Amino acid sequence: KAGVTQTPRYLIKTRGQQVTLSCSPISGHRSVSWYQQTPGQGLQFLFEYFSETQRNKGNFPGRFSGRQFSNSRSEMNVSTLELGDSALYLCASSLGVAGDGEQYFGPGTRLTVT
Amino acid sequence: KQEVTQIPAALSVPEGENLVLNCSFTDSAIYNLQWFRQDPGKGLTSLLLIQSSQREQTSGRLNASLDKSSGRSTLYIAASQPGDSATYLCAVQTGANNLFFGTGTRLTVIP
Q: Is residue A17 within 8 Å of residue A9, measured between CB atoms?
């Protein structure tokens, strides 16, 4: 069974630009969650999508958005990039059933904003 | 708000030693607790998942325990090896399907 895949693996962008990251979950998983990891803040939850609907949202500004497609693949978009958005962005997939929440993470996308 | 703490922040041990990593959380209303391993610059690898109704889980040389009422979990690694060197993270899942992570313990096993 293939694991969680994320593309691209590395990105370099300039302040003010926007970026789109992609995540393909494990086959059969309907929930995709996104996390931001930085040295200062650690791992922080961005949002979760389940069956094409945003089900939960963390405490991030509206510049961070996402969506999920009918095949459960998800994209995350960050607009008007800031230097502080430089981070490792991880997505996780799970069945999405409450209480059965083992989450499997992808390798991440390393975003550098200059 | 759920807060997760891991102690120690870093640990260095000689190969072959048994060791314990600690995780504590402030809100005991959790669905489960998951231990992960992260190698530098990489994603997270799930090690063990303990449901809130369980007391412990074992996988090979790893054993994780959960005391939900006191808000604590431990990860026991037996007979450590250099390949165990990584950052270990614990995370708790609450009613929403998102994880609250600790800051991790960076483990170095010296050959």
A: no
A-chain residues near B99 (CB < 8 A): 33, 35, 43, 45, 92, 103
pLDDT tens-place string over residues B14-71? 999 999 999 999 999 998 999 999 999 889 999 999 999 999 999 999 999 999 999 9
How many CA atoms within 13 Å lie on the side-chain side of A10?
A: 2
Selecting from A44, A55, A104 the residue whose C-beta is nearest the C-beta of B97 gives: A55
Q: Which of B49, B52, B104 sits opposite A102 (nearest CB)?
A: B49
> What's the CA gap between B81 and B108, in Å, rounded?
9
Which residue intervals of B5-108 are DSSP H helices? Answer: none
**Residue A43 tokens, joined:** 């791992």
Chain B neighbours among A 10-69 (CB < 8 Å)? 31, 33, 35, 42-45, 48, 50, 55-56, 58
In angstroms, the CA B94 to CA B72 distance is 15
